[in-house]
Amino acid sequence: MREKQLLMIPGPTPVAQPVLRACSKPMINHRGPEFAELQDECNRGLAAAFKTTDDILTLTCSGTGAMEAAVVNTLSPGDKVLCLVIGAFGDRFAQIAKTFGAQVERMDFEWGQAVDERKLAARLKQDSAREIKAVLVTHNETSTGVTNDLAAIAAVVREHGALILVDAVSSLVAMDLRADEWGLDVVAAASQKAFMLPPGLAFVSMSARAWDANTTAKMHRYYFDLQKAKEFMDKKQTPWTPALPQMYGLQEGLRLIEEEGLENCFARHRRLGSAVRAACAAMGLKLFADPAHASNAVTAILAPEGTTPKQIRSLLLDKYGVVLAEGQGKLKDTVFRIGHLGYVNETDIMTTLAALGAGLHQLGPKVDLGAALDAAHRELTATSGAQT
Amino acid sequence: MREKQLLMIPGPTPVAQPVLRACSKPMINHRGPEFAELQDECNRGLAAAFKTTDDILTLTCSGTGAMEAAVVNTLSPGDKVLCLVIGAFGDRFAQIAKTFGAQVERMDFEWGQAVDERKLAARLKQDSAREIKAVLVTHNETSTGVTNDLAAIAAVVREHGALILVDAVSSLVAMDLRADEWGLDVVAAASQKAFMLPPGLAFVSMSARAWDANTTAKMHRYYFDLQKAKEFMDKKQTPWTPALPQMYGLQEGLRLIEEEGLENCFARHRRLGSAVRAACAAMGLKLFADPAHASNAVTAILAPEGTTPKQIRSLLLDKYGVVLAEGQGKLKDTVFRIGHLGYVNETDIMTTLAALGAGLHQLGPKVDLGAALDAAHRELTATSGAQT
After folding, report:
1. What is the DSSP pairing of strand B325-326 with strand B322-323?
2. Lower CB count within 10 Å: N or C terminus of chain B?
3. Apex CA A37: angle with CA A249 and CA B169, to 5°?
């Protein structure tokens, strides 16, 4: 029964049966009327998820491709950008900008911490000549399990006037993001996170300011040319052949999200995140993230003394079929991660925590499994609308 | 019964049921042992299809992404490249090279014709200073239904010493391509053509010469960085989250190809191509391609006098559920196209030709449907190993 697994990593996330079934529908002409209808319906659902009336372009690629699209469609080589880095994905965003010729200024915060908006505000205030063209920020940092206060960051950037490019790959649909209200210029997201879809599609929203910047942006782009994507979207097509299975899945996944209700979906993620953190505390486990900014999509947990992340992950996979993620970058030998976003419910969380407690017990650390599950249960049954 | 369709376009092509079912398997950890096995098996099958021992990198994108990867991983801005253009896809390859800063010299051949190797040889002979770094060529030009003699072109390029970058998106598996024997440096292919898979994956092979060029290639790349793809492939992973449904499908599709036998698969495509051409001749239809270089994957047909391609395509879709492709670029109002590659058999061809004949009859042109089907039948039942 090796294939019977509970996939608790921050992407790919588990996919609902109706979505998987949708992914296996026969092919259609991507320049025909059926595709036009499919794309229209998906675009309506995406607009609701992004909370925007901006254009949202659908690309066949991973979230990294969407991040590249965000950068190369709004900037020129030599442009000064400020990259807010709190982990591996912030680092990746900065690497992309540098690769395509931007003059990158990094503002690094200790891994585990969130962006300090006051430091950002102070830096932008110094930039009286408005040399900084764009601020690049990660909404939810998957490597550390930290969520930035995007509303606050966006307000600071809007005050300055730079573009704000947001990596929302692991945040969108799992937590609130309001592209219009917060004035976000480019928001990059992907299918295999809270959208509850297989990997293969990514989404990029473009504000009017972003389109303005696009007219003079000279970074090299062809596959990721959003102007071309927009031109074809207006004809109800895509410039290149799209990943049809994921488009079918998106149509179905967006219906599931609508059925649950986006705000209920956020509340579910808050319950799941709180439950994992409460249970870890009850087991005496240390979390990597600053508790004030802990992510409701993914939790990075320090392997307790006498164990390694690898031991824990292997035992949980082999004995319980529970798949946890390894640490990224410099955290590889320090933390393991539980993804709790997308098609994940209360039962999945209880199962994962039970397996984790039992597994740790076998590896040495004394953990109180009953107390952990009690703590989780309390959070899972708390008023669903509770704000964190 | 609007959804009951026979998809006869040159991609996306029809997908076999076992492949569609494979696409709907549950997600797995793309950094775990199951993915390692999946990728290994796929790589063995791809090596057989490409007839190479070179590295083959699997990317999540369309064929156009693979073409971009071919260019940006082997060239630097300012490099001189010679683009052999016989249609819309050759034009696209040239556009990509230009976009990323290459100094593009085009050798255009009339649409409908193949590359004349003697002209290519003459041009390369003039280049005694070896300024031309790479020759970019389309194996099978989907817009015109013309197949280049890639073996002959490659021999000329090898004599000169430039890299040869091949767009094999609509040729691979439908017709013979021998990356090692012919000395092809980079071969770009995609999932939704003769591989009989949904769109979403692309494949790029890199010869030792191509990797050498890669060490000094300065064109901007991040998502399509093949060095990073290779580094992760060696760890049995991909740098970015891959399109898992299409990877599952690839595993199954490669098994189907192995079961049929690659050479039998080529022979089937030859039979299908011959049958379409013979039937068109019997119906008095003019083909766009030079008969000496007609493609066995796709046929471009001129709309007979008194009809438009749009009329023909609409009637066949609405009345018979047979989906044909429109003309591309400047051929939009002149031709329609029948795709006959991938998961297409003799019956599909007979059905398509019957619908086409009946449809034309309704639009005015007098066609002898019986003669057309007789002609097709003769070609379909001719000795399968016949070379074209």
Report:
1. unpaired
2. N
3. 65
> What is the C-alpha separation between B348 and B350, in angstroms, rounded?
6
Note which residues in 75-104 of chain A have CB less than 8 A from chain B. Answer: 95-96, 99-101
Helices first, then strands: H and E counts in chain B: 14, 14
What's the token pair of residue B334? 């002149």
* Nearest CB to B15 within list A27, A224, A323: A27
Length of chain B: 388
Contact of A48 with A379, CB cutoff 8 Å: no
Asked if A101 and B325 come within 8 Å (Cβ–Cβ), the reply is: no
Per DSSP, B320 falls in state: I
What digits encode the pLDDT tens for the residues A174-204? 999 999 999 999 999 999 999 999 999 999 9
User: Are B17-259 and B261-380 the same fold in CATH?
Assistant: no
Is-above-0.90 flag for pTM? yes
How far is the C-alpha of B3 from the C-alpha of A25, rounded, in Å?
A: 11
Tokens of B25: 């398997």
| Domain spans in chain A, listed from the N-terminal domain onward | 17-259, 261-380
Residue B386 has pLDDT above 50, yes or no: no
Is the complex ipTM more than 0.85? Answer: yes
Where residue A295 falls (left for φ over 0; alpha for ψ -120 to 50; beta otherwise) is beta
CATH architecture of B261-380: Alpha-Beta Complex (3.90)
Q: Hey, are the CB atoms on B24 and A29 less than 8 Å from each other?
A: no
Q: How many CB atoms sit inside 10 A of residue A377's CB?
A: 17
Which CATH fold would you assign to the domain A17-259? Aspartate Aminotransferase; domain 2 (3.40.640)
Which of A95, A98, A241, A324 would best serve as a mutation to test chain B binding (most B beta carbons within 10 A)?
A: A241
B198 vs A contacts (CB less than 8 Å): 27, 243-245
A339 touches B at CB < 8 Å: no
Give pLDDT tens digits for B140-172. Answer: 999 999 999 999 999 999 999 999 999 999 999
